[in-house]
Amino acid sequence: MYVYSVAAIMLMGISHVLLYIRLIRYNRLSYTMVITLSIVFTILLGVVVTVTGYPEFNIIMLLLFLLSLGLMQDELTLMQSLYFALVSLVSITLVKIVMLDLGMKLFLLTPFSLYIWTESVISLIVSIVMIIAIVLWRKPIQKIAQFIIDSPLYYISYGLLAIGLIIELILNMPTTNVLAALHRQYGEISYIAAIVLFFVLLLMVLISWHLTKEKLLEEHQMRLDKELLNYVEKLEFMHDELASFRHDYINVLLALEEGVRTKNVKQIERVYYDVIAPTSKMIDSHELDIVKLSRVHIPEIKSVLSVKVVTSQQQQVNVMVDIPHKIEAIAMPIVTFIRAISILLDNAIEEAVRSKDKKLQIAFFEMEGRQYFIVRNSCEYESIDLQRIYEKRYSRKKGNRGYGLFSLKRMIDKTNNATLETTFVAPYFTQTFILKK
């Protein structure tokens, strides 16, 4: 075996693993770890195949290895992990078959001589191209994976991938009696079927992309409608506050008018200190909170923060917002960030409402290449077990609760540049969400 062939086999193993972890959206493994795992597994696989004499183990053990990696992604079911393992296994093999065949035909059109090692070199070039393509298209690959799962063609493609696996077993120079007989009888047909299957699966991916894109647009519109409804409710609340203030303001003027008419200085002082001064502080606080939110230049996030602030104020929580500078971009996907801060704020509001002090503080700022989102709230507890609050189903509340912080912890664990720091100094509970830019 030529060194080109060995290098090509190593790179193919890396391609399978790299594509699979992109499909399952597991971003915690570094490229160094992926390469190391792939090389060690490929060497082990080569030893097993050499000792046993069964090339079929190439495919079976690779499938099991990818499935074991899929266990690290808790959000996927076993069937989904198996599906993506089949996608990685079948698609890369089919692409290699098509590109290798095309490469050989193109080489024969050139004036260069054909050597024994020519096919090995072309195979190595194909492997390098595939790895580069996976690295460059890593984000579209993750989107395509979600499109396929949500597509009505998901189960049909599952069946086609199973057929592709059988074709691979037949083409892999098997030694077992059944597969060897199929290889002798249908080897050439299987090769043609593999090429046809590649283009069928490619067509299904494009169709799935189109169908799911329409669905996502519809969901996006529904989300916009919901945000609009939240804004309307917020405006209604502010209108009610303004109407209430207008009514109280007229009564205050009447009281002042009576004090001025009778020249009763004590009555004027009482109206000022008991009514006007507290109202002024409340107005200043609420106005400043709304103005500070305008420094967030991301509409989706500003909408969520606005709704949470108004919700807190409606429940008589004293809210303080600190956003000293403009926030124009987030160092992680916006949907994931919104899910994270929504969990933090919902928990904080709920605890603040139940507490004696009823205080909620929100800070959002950037400093030294990091973005900080800090939520601090008063709570009714004298002590909190910080080691257990992220456990599944752990909650001090009644009912089927305890999933919020557990889900948040899983989201952060899957994001390379995100950390969450938690502190408790009675009676205040603080969560610091940090993103590296």
UniProtKB/TrEMBL annotation:
Domain spans labelled Sensor histidine kinase NatK-like C-terminal: 334-432
Entry superkingdom: Bacteria
Keywords: ATP-binding, Membrane, Nucleotide-binding, Transmembrane, Transmembrane helix
Alphabetized GO MF terms: ATP binding; identical protein binding
Bilayer-spanning residue ranges: 6-24, 31-51, 57-72, 84-108, 114-137, 153-171, 191-212
Protein name as it appears in the record: ATP-binding protein
Organism of derivation: Bacillus cereus
